[in-house]
Write a structure and sequence with these properties.
The chain has seven helices and 13 strands. It is an alpha+beta fold.
Length: about 270
């Protein structure tokens, strides 16, 4: 995620700004918004951009092109990125752009697994799956009155960096970064720096392996022993992570891979 900071956001008619942070859903560990600094264009205002509108990223030029205009961004609901984002603000934001609610279905994004599947013009509309998505969205809208006062559930990726990791038998390190699936925008791993335990070793821990996450204390507890983590395959941030390495990691911990059930990820975390 660190490598995506400062990526430019290119609207259909010009540059919007640069990525400064990401907000992820603490129930499913999926990135829901990019926090974009618009610079002097909008008087240093920060705006939220959903992966729903992001086209194919240009990894070479470090640019995310989006299918919205600068005028749409300018008139979007204001947000104070220094404060937690409420469900009500999300409702206002998604309604402004005419998007379905992503929390309406059983997938990572509504009834589907990919953000573009809930675009109004998505080619799957009219199919049985799309009809179910519409039903899911209608249900989500019916829950508005109950959801308005829900506790904020979006978390800053930048804020999570530095959280302390507790194994079942002691401390093992701190969160150094997060690894995201570029197709679904799901956070697949926490990159844990164990240098305060043994020199220079980074390892990966998947969100489903988390037992407890305390947002107030900034601690993450996992159902893993220190020795299991120490013996886990080391992570090299300079190299791309491939499926073979992922399989080896999951086999080491005796955990099923998220890919064995499509891309749906379930977690069992006690959140505080």
């Amino acid at each position: 995620m660190k490598s995506l900071e400062d990526y430019a956001i290119g609207a259909t008619d010009g540059t919007v700004g640069q990525v400064k942070d990401f907000y992820f859903d603490d129930q499913t560990w999926v990135v829901r918004y990019l926090v974009v600094d618009t610079g002097t264009w909008l008087a240093n205002r920060s705006v939220l951009i959903s992966p729903i509108v992001i086209n194919q990223p240009d990894w070479i030029k470090k640019n995310f092109s989006v299918s919205i205009t600068k005028a749409q961004v300018k008139d979007s609901p204001a947000i104070d990125t220094q404060k937690p984002v409420s469900r009500q603000h999300e409702m206002d934001h998604l309604a402004y752009y005419g998007f379905q609610y992503y929390w309406g279905g059983g997938g990572l994004w509504g009834a589907g697994m990919y953000p573009n599947e809930i675009l109004p013009g998505y080619e799957g509309y009219g199919s049985p799956a799309a009809e179910r998505a519409e039903e899911d969205n209608a249900y989500a809208r019916s829950q508005e009155s109950r959801q308005r006062d829900d506790d904020p559930h979006l978390r800053s990726c930048n804020a999570v960096v530095g959280y302390h990791i507790h194994a079942s038998d002691g401390d093992i390190g701190h969160v150094w970064g997060l690894l995201m699936d570029e197709e679904t925008w799901a956070i697949r791993y926490l990159v844990v720096d164990t240098s305060n335990w043994w020199l220079g070793h980074k390892v990966l821990i998947a969100p489903p392996w988390i037992k407890d996450l305390n947002w107030v204390d900034g601690t993450v507890s996992v159902n893993l022993t220190r020795q299991a983590v120490k013996d886990a395959p080391a992570y090299d941030a300079a190299m791309d992570l491939n499926r073979t390495q992922e399989r080896g990691l999951h086999e080491h911990y005796g955990q099923a891979g998220y890919w064995s059930d499509g891309v749906k990820m379930e977690t069992d975390i006690n959140r505080k």
